[in-house]
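Worked Example 4.2. Consider the chain below.
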Amino acid sequence: MKRALLLSCLISLTAFSQEVIKLEKTQITATRTERPELEIPAGVETVTRDEIEMERQYNISEVLESLPGVQAATKNGGYDVRLIIRGGGLKAPYAVREINILLDGVPITDPDGLSRLDFIDPQLLEEVDIVKGPNSTLYGANSAGGVVNFITISPFKFQGFKIRAGYGKYGTYMSRFLYGGNDGGNLFYNANFSYRKSDSWREWNRFETFQTTAKLGWLIDDTSSLETTVSFTKSDLQLPGSLTKEEFEEDPSQQTSSAWRRSGRYSRIFFWSNKYTKEISEDLTLKSTFYLQRWTHYHPVFGRINDGGSYVGGIDAQLEIKHKLFGKDALLLTGIQGRYDHYNSQRYLYQLCVLQSGDVDYCRNASRTNPIDYVLTDDRDKLYDDQKNRNYTAGIFVQETVNPTEKIIVDLGIRLDTVRFDIEKTSYYELKYWPGYYYKKLSTPEKSEASKTWNMVSPRVGVVYKFIPDWSIYGTISTGFQTPQDNELLQNPELDASTTVNYEIGTRFADSRIYISSSIFLMKTDKEIVQTYDSGGERVYVNAGKTTKKGFELEGKIRLIDGVFFGASYTYYNFKYDSFVFTDRRGTTYDFSGNKLYYIPEYMYSLYITGKHRSGLKFRAEVNTWGPYYVDNANTEKYSDYKNITNVMIGYEKGKKWEVSFDVRNLFDKKYASQYVKSDTKNEYYIYPAPPRTYMIRASYKF
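Applying the procedure from the previous section yields the following structure tokens:
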């Protein structure tokens, strides 16, 4: 096994400089075992290292935005990405929800479904695997929208010392130092130090992050190996907030006029994982992972400053058992996953405010007659509330893969999950919303708590038929479930998890010149969690929504000449609420049943041409368009200016020693919004402007 692994590593290193013989890709995330895409019964995307190297590698949206079925856009720059896969993730006001995010196979998604992408270092990415649609059968809770696995450089695959630096518009810098080596025997290692910083084109939007990662790979013997990763991230991002329609038209670079105009997220993250692989026999392989995470953040947001963090620990163990079923080759995959999240959060009042009278005072001194106009700083004051979450998840899964004939592959899987939330909160103030914003001190602290356990079953079946080695069709029925978020559960302890069933058929073709993939899907979501208000005007959450999502995805790639490719992708969406009844604070009821989901384009398409000549010249040009989308659930208005956004890159590399590139994003300096939405009940817009034209020059050298 040791010699085979070393040979595999050498092949991986040299393959990047050679012409790809077949355009088909492989990935491990969709089925938990490495498979060519033509043998995967699911909608998948695989972004390779070569494709990643063609991008700026400053924000992960750059490597995701051209993929069919994927909406990836940054609202605030830095590490911020709003990620939506086939509508999954739409509910997230910030960060990512309904999509299970993995880092080197380790989940970084909270048990309540929230993922923060400051964990991810774009400069260290080796590959990105995406599974579109629900996959709770293999990954458990909060995979209703899909799974994304960010895979970083392995210690077995890089040796030497490489430096990279980049400079761009608006005081944007990036740098990386990567060193990898081998002790001459069975020990491999690498260390990475990276830095990114931007003064930004918007007010109150400075970004700075430092990330360091060390990896150790040990070939213990011919049948076992151990890989250990330790990383630390320091990431600070000011959040400029949304604009009104008038502000967006006047000057999109300005800061929000919201009262809470000192928002931000300042995080510190420690990440440790250990992966052990043991080939027990020719037919039995054990793969196990143990991980610990510690993150903290200082997070000024709407009305309060969150100062908290979490201790997270988990295990993942799976067995791969090769055997015979009815005389045919089969693979039984079974495993367990467990995770514990120990979260403590204290939220504070903002300290200094300008009141509507014009006086500068402590925010806590605002009143109904003299409410807050806007905050002056992001410094904290009195304790607003204190919250403790103790969340547990545990799952066991089984998947049988059998080949009834040489042309047919069948996956049958099922998973049992238990998810438990224990939440306690003590409140000392409340935020009053009418006639203005002000804090009201409670006469006695109010205690609230919620405990809830979900026991969920997630089956899945998938079939692949290969007409010829280069062409296959597939069909799948997959399931997923999404738990409520902690604040939703505190408002309504009776909330249930929403469930999604996906029906999908697709086809793929790949040879040495052409790659084509297409799929048609139908997703039904039940018990959708929606926001409404009770008779007293307080916000509550209920299981009142049902949605039907229909879509078509198509992508293709053709080799024009050696090293030069033209590609395109197209997505069509028809996402509707089957039932969605909403009541506002004034008691007015709105029925959105039959309406289309907001922020979901009618279609998306991308065109690109990319090339790498043997002389060292390389280039990429792409055009991305989102079709019109409704800006609210009431479907009163559409936004259609997100179109023909053009990005270009040209570069030169000398062997694998050095490289220089220059890229321009939003080449024609188009004014458009990365998010353009409107209140369902008021004529208020929440617009996040997209960046204007930016450029960056990068250079790297490998010693």
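The mean pLDDT is 92. The helical segments are 2-15, 49-53, 61-64, 136-139, 245-250, 486-491. Compare this with Example 4.1 before moving on.
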